[in-house]
TrEMBL record:
CDD domains: GH32_Fruct1-like. It comes from Brassica napus (Rape). Residues 52-371 form the Glycosyl hydrolase family 32 N-terminal domain. One of its GO terms (molecular function) is hydrolase activity, hydrolyzing O-glycosyl compounds. Pfam families: Glyco_hydro_32C, Glyco_hydro_32N. The keyword Signal applies. It comes from the Eukaryota. This is Cell wall invertase 4-1. SUPFAM superfamilies: Arabinanase/levansucrase/invertase (SSF75005), Concanavalin A-like lectins/glucanases (SSF49899). The keyword Hydrolase applies. InterPro entries: ConA-like_dom_sf, Fructan_Metab_Enzymes, Glyco_hydro_32, Glyco_hydro_32_AS, Glyco_hydro_32_C, Glyco_hydro_32_N, Glyco_hydro_beta-prop_sf. Keywords: Glycosidase, Hydrolase, Signal. Belongs to the glycosyl hydrolase 32 family.
Length: 590
């Protein structure tokens, strides 16, 4: 092959890879103008989640706000009032005392004024002393320009915060001549600094450079753009839903509020990339005097960066929970079914189970995420397995619970790493490519081993979540891959060749930073009919997947632990629970 053919092949591979990446999680709310107001006749419950946050029908996307206020957790979210695809977006509003049961309230914000007549898009809430909660959100004006507005509660003493006013002195920030009016959105929760200013970050881009503009205000009404963005990065495209917050480097139990300015903290900047439909974050240092954030360079600042979740998860947002001193993450998991099926089932999208966010105490180089403890109140029937060896090719069924609606925690011990396959660090393999090639049935040395969720007994349909342990040939240390593979999840046929007519069944994957010195690695999966949220090594690597089996549904779904590696793996402990439905999940919402 000549040099030019080699270059063409390489280019083709890059393009294919780029195509795959851009396809990403297909999370984006595509605009289907004809479909967005198609009313929902009835709701199909086959794949509806039981204990995840969902309204009774219609489309949802980004979590907005969240806030703890006067005894209630408030969740706002982007919601189509008229149908099951993206469109007609309002800020829907629900409240909860426990983050498990939710009461739907009237919509908080909807297009009604010149400064948001064409859209009320994502934003945040800040608790402003003396004023109460203030919403910052993106409004779309008549010219389709994205501008930033504020809204205040009609009655801040109402713990439900039912009614919101959008004052006439809006907008508070408009794009200037250097900025792109169609890419200027999603203001973050603001933080107060010692210099007497509030600050917020608004996502944007200049050509292919993703940008976070920082704005300052003394009174929360007049906002001035700082001279430089807080941070920007070439080739990352539009930054949607930025999130910026501190984490403690010494306290691994509590979260920090945004205005924390003491020692022993790092900052996190997360952005949601419109180009790839994935998110990534960096850890770094915030210089308040310069209005700058500088990533610490320990992880990539770009497409290959660390992720809150390596699966179907987007537009996420954290908030500080004053009740329990923790930082909580919400994120949206879109459908990956066909558009026609979304419409016929009458709903699309859910919010993942809220997760606490902390710096990883073991390496201090990444975050760890864990489902909020409140979700455990839904656990009912319980089974346990102890000290069971699983030999190569073995699969043990977890019986006695409802596998389609379950919480399962398992600790594996892999014993020796002698048989682990070599991992050449010079491979440019991305975890996703590795998982695509080394699926759950491809025999390895140590692994693949893990859980088989939403399965038929003959494995016609199944969603495996598993680890595969390699040995880094340069350091001799383990390199652990975690996969959640939707490829075998459903027998359902595509409706046609177009993207919208195909179910998206990707393998999702990430590496897990563990040294396995004691041989142990844990896996927890929350399984809820069409969503599987998995937490590797106590939340170091998290993967959410959406799947639509047609046989492995409800009481016909099964759950197994398995091992397809030559090395026997020990299940030190496995605890599994059926999960109940919350008593109240947005009943009666419109
Ligand atoms: N969704 C909102 C936008 C945001 C995007 C519109 C992210 O504000 O950028 O529904 O999913």
């Amino acid at each position: 092959m000549g040099v030019s053919s080699i270059i063409s092949v390489m280019l083709l591979l890059v393009l294919i890879n780029l195509g795959n990446n851009i396809k990403g999680i297909e999370a984006f709310h595509q605009v289907y103008e004809k479909l967005q107001s198609q009313s929902v006749e009835s709701v199909n419950h086959l794949h509806r989640s039981a204990f995840h946050f969902q309204p009774p029908k219609h489309w949802i996307n980004d979590p907005n706000g969240p806030l703890y206020y006067k005894g209630f957790y408030h969740l706002f979210y982007q919601y189509n009032t008229k149908g099951a695809v993206w469109g007609n977006i309002v800020w829907a509003h629900s409240v909860s005392k426990d983050l498990v049961n939710w009461e739907a309230l009237e919509h908080a914000i909807y297009p009604s004024k010149w400064f948001d007549i064409k859209g009320t898009w994502s934003g945040s809430i800040t608790l402003v002393p003396g004023k109460g909660p203030v919403i910052l959100y993106t409004g779309i004006n008549q010219n389709e320009t994205q501008i930033q507005n504020y809204a205040i509660p009609e009655d801040p003493s109402d713990p439900y915060l039912r009614k919101w006013i959008k004052p006439d002195d809006n907008p508070v920030a408009v794009p200037d001549y250097t900025m792109n009016g169609s890419d200027f959105r999603d203001p973050t929760t603001a933080w107060f600094s010692k210099d007497g200013h509030w600050r917020t970050v608004v996502g944007s881009r200049r050509k292919h450079r993703g940008i976070g503009y920082i704005y300052r205000s003394k009174d929360f009404k007049h906002w001035v753009k700082a001279k430089h963005p807080i941070h920007s990065k070439e080739s990352t495209g539009m930054w949607e839903c930025p999130d910026f917050f501190p984490v403690s480097t010494t306290d691994f139990e509590n979260g920090l509020d945004l205005d924390y300015a003491g020692p022993n903290a790092k900052h996190v900047l997360k952005v949601s990339l419109d180009m790839t439909r994935y998110e990534y974050y960096t850890l770094g240092k915030y210089y308040p005097n310069k209005d700058r954030y500088v990533p610490n360079g320990e992880s990539p600042d770009g497409w290959d960066g660390l992720r809150f979740d390596y699966g179907n998860f987007y537009a996420s947002k954290t908030f500080f929970d004053y009740k329990k001193n923790r930082r909580i993450l919400w994120g949206w998991a879109n459908e990956s079914d066909t558009v026609e099926d979304d419409i016929s089932k009458g709903w699309a999208g859910l919010q993942v189970i809220p997760r606490t966010v902390l710096l990883d105490s073991t390496n201090k180089k990444q975050l760890v995420f864990w489902p909020i403890e409140e979700i455990e109140s839904l656990r009912s029937s319980y089974v346990r397995m102890n000290n069971k060896d699983i030999k190569m090719g073995q699969r043990l069924e977890v019986k006695g619970i409802t596998p389609a609606q379950a919480d399962v925690e398992v600790t594996f011990n892999v014993g020796s790493l002698e048989k682990a396959e070599p991992f050449d660090p010079s491979y440019t393999y991305k975890p996703l490519d590795l998982c695509r090639v080394k699926g759950s049935n491809v025999t390895g040395g140590v692994g693949p081993f893990g859980l088989i969720t939403l399965a038929t007994p003959d494995l016609e349909e199944y969603t495996p979540v598993f680890f595969r342990v390699f040995k880094d040939t340069s350091t001799n240390k383990p390199k652990v891959l975690m996969c959640s593979d939707a490829r075998p999840s459903s027998l359902k046929q595509d409706r046609g060749p177009l993207k919208q007519d195909r179910m998206y069944k990707p393998p999702f994957a990430g590496f897990v930073d563990v040294d396995l010195t004691d041989g142990r690695i844990s896996l927890r999966s929350l399984i809820d009919h069409s969503v599987v949220e998995s937490f590797g090594a106590l939340g170091k690597t998290v993967i959410t997947s959406r799947v639509y089996p047609i046989k492995a549904v409800k009481e016909n779904a099964h759950l197994y632990v398995f091992n397809n590696g030559t090395q026997t793996v020990n299940v030190e402990s496995l605890d599994a629970w059926s999960m109940e439905r919350p008593l109240q999940m947005n009943n009666g919402a419109t």
